[in-house]
Amino acid sequence: MERILVAGANGTTGKQVVEILNNTEGYAPVAMVRKESQMEQFKSKNIDTVLGDLENDLSHAVQNIDKVIFAAGSGGKKVVAVDQEGAKNLIREAEKANVKKFVMLSSMGADAPEKAEKLQDYLKAKHNADEFLKQSKVPYAIVRPGTLNNESAKGTIKIGDSLEKKGEITRADVANTLVSSLRESTTTNKTYEILQGDLKIDEALKQI
Which of 12, 64, 93, 111 has the fewest CB atoms nearer than 10 Å to its CB? Predict the structure, then answer.
């Protein structure tokens, strides 16, 4: 049973990641949240939780953790402190703890934030966090979805190193892609963009 730390477990996408992990054989999610009041929703389902603030010491959060999914975000309020430096903080601790894989939820546009028409500060922060992860010693997968929506899961995506067009994808399918990226060896040390498409998620990840 692999213990998977989910950073940003209280977020809209993070909650779905925890739920998928909890219902997937071989995984035991550990929900990382910032406030004690956020813990009960997970504890009531017998899901392990840990208090962790990305802006503070996180050494305790990675103890006995096999892999990490980073689905945290500041919602545009603290892009440097959370989306960039907070991510780097967790990556450092994951490296020290010999975590076997770090799956980063990034964003389309993070490869070239200077070209973006909007959200440049956010995309720059994500870019810097992604680059820091690539240069670490932790095996990684960096997943860059298009615009997220809250529609029901389709179970199918389009994938590529760099997709030519913009588009949307459901949060549910992003969450499933993040979880599938934990297992697929083809995704290790790869960065890939995803949109809604026609390929089943597991099949798509085998092609990257």
Answer: 64
pTM over 0.85: yes
Count the neighbouring beta carbons within 10 Å of the beta carbon of residue 115.
9
DSSP SS3 for 4: strand
Element (H, E) at 103: strand 101-105
Show the domain range for 64. Answer: 2-206
Q: For the chain, how many structural domains are there in total?
A: 1
Residues 6+ apart with CB under 8 A from 113: 120, 123, 124, 126, 127
- Alpha-carbon distance of 168 to 172, in angstroms, equals 12
| 48 phi-psi bin (left φ>0, alpha ψ -120 to 50, beta other) | beta
Provide Rg for the chain, Cα atoms: 16
Q: Under a CB-based contact definition with an 8 Å cutoff, are residues 183 and 162 in contact?
A: no
Let me know: does 140 contact 134? Beta carbons within 8 Å: yes
CATH number, domain of 117, equals: 3.40.50.720
| pLDDT classification of 116: cutoffs 50, 70, 90 | confident
Residue 10's nearest CA partner among 58, 65, 46, 50 is 50
> What's the pLDDT tens digit per position in 52-107?
999 999 999 999 999 999 999 888 789 999 999 999 999 999 999 999 999 999 99
Q: Other CB atoms closer than 10 Å to residue 69's CB: what's the count?
A: 31
